[in-house]
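From the methods appendix. Each design record in this collection lists the tokenized structure first, followed by the designed amino acid sequence. Records were kept in a plain field format so they could be parsed without special tools. The example shown here is representative of the layout used throughout.

RECORD:
FOLD TOKENS (327 positions):
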């Protein structure tokens, strides 16, 4: 005789107990707990970054100089006067800013392109396992690990005219006349000097990011393409570049923002009086703010730089997102 067992039923009292006020309260707590945990970080982030940013924008509308810095909130209102001076090519201050902007654009284009290229070449070369690969990876990352100030100071000594390693090397290779040693930190050579230092500091970061991205690519793709007769360059173009699309999108944007805002390289290399060829815009804004003590004009230039970087960043993100969506 078959025995049938009825499925367990939940009594109304048990169901009511599980959905009672206590369970609802626990559900609400779980819902709001993540927001409560990140709230302190958001508040401090706003206080540390947003508040100075808003204050700087407000100062850009004031005639804030050394005479009114003690009580800056009562400085005369300048309206858009500081911005008109900054974007005008008919006055010395505006022309100097536009010239610095053009130099910075060329500097950024060269540094980002070469840093990415060197990082990509090193990452691809060290992708496959071979004896001594760990040693090469460590050597390539040394510039990224060296303290920034110490590294740039070392380059500053290397670029000295009389006792610098660069000129001594060029003389030993018979590329320059010992009686006419070039100056590297003044004149037109200053542009090339700051580019070399910036690339030396930046490309290891690109190498590190791209090397990490290469670790996520399935080796079977390369083996299958090799069986089909694909050469290394074809593999790099058809497999490596598409697979590193996400890494490259972030990497190029970060390199652009870092390089365009670069202040440390020219400040340490050239000191207070930067040569015209190495007049990068962040250093230009700092010098013009504190040498003339016209803080309102300096804040206006900083605000214009912020707006430019925001526009370029948003346009870049929209462009790459649209391309990725189509792909």
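DESIGN:
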């Amino acid at each position: 005789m078959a025995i049938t067992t009825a499925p367990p039923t939940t009594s109304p009292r048990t169901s009511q107990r599980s959905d009672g006020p206590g369970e609802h309260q626990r559900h609400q707590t779980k819902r709001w707990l993540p927001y409560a945990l990140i709230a302190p970080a958001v508040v401090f982030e706003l206080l540390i970054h947003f508040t100075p940013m808003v204050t700087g924008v407000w100062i850009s509308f004031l005639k804030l100089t050394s005479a009114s810095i003690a009580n800056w909130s009562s400085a005369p209102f300048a309206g858009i006067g500081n911005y008109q001076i900054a974007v005008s090519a008919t006055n010395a201050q505006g022309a100097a800013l536009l010239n610095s902007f053009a130099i910075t654009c060329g500097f950024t284009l060269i540094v980002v392109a070469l840093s990415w290229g060197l990082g990509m070449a090193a990452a691809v070369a060290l992708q496959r396992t071979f004896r001594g690969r760990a040693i090469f990876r460590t050597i390539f990352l040394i510039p990224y690990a060296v303290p920034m100030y110490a590294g740039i100071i070392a380059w500053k000594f290397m670029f000295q005219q009389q006792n610098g390693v660069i000129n001594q090397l060029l003389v030993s290779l018979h590329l320059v006349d010992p009686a006419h040693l070039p100056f590297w930190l003044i004149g037109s050579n200053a542009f090339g000097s700051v580019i070399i230092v910036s690339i030396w500091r930046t490309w290891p970061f690109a190498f590190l990011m791209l090397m990490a991205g290469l670790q996520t690519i399935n080796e079977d793709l390369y083996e299958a393409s090799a069986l089909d007769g694909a050469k290394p360059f074809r593999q790099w173009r058809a497999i490596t570049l598409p697979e590193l699309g996400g890494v490259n999108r972030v990497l190029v944007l970060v390199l652009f923002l870092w390089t365009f805002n670069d202040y440390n390289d020219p400040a340490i290399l050239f000191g207070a009086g930067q040569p015209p060829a190495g007049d990068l815009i962040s250093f230009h804004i700092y010098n013009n703010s504190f040498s003339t003590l016209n803080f309102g004009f300096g804040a206006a230039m900083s605000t214009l730089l912020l707006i430019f970087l925001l526009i370029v960043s948003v346009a870049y993100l929209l462009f790459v997102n649209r391309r990725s969506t189509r792909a």
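APPENDIX NOTE: The radius of gyration is 29 Å.
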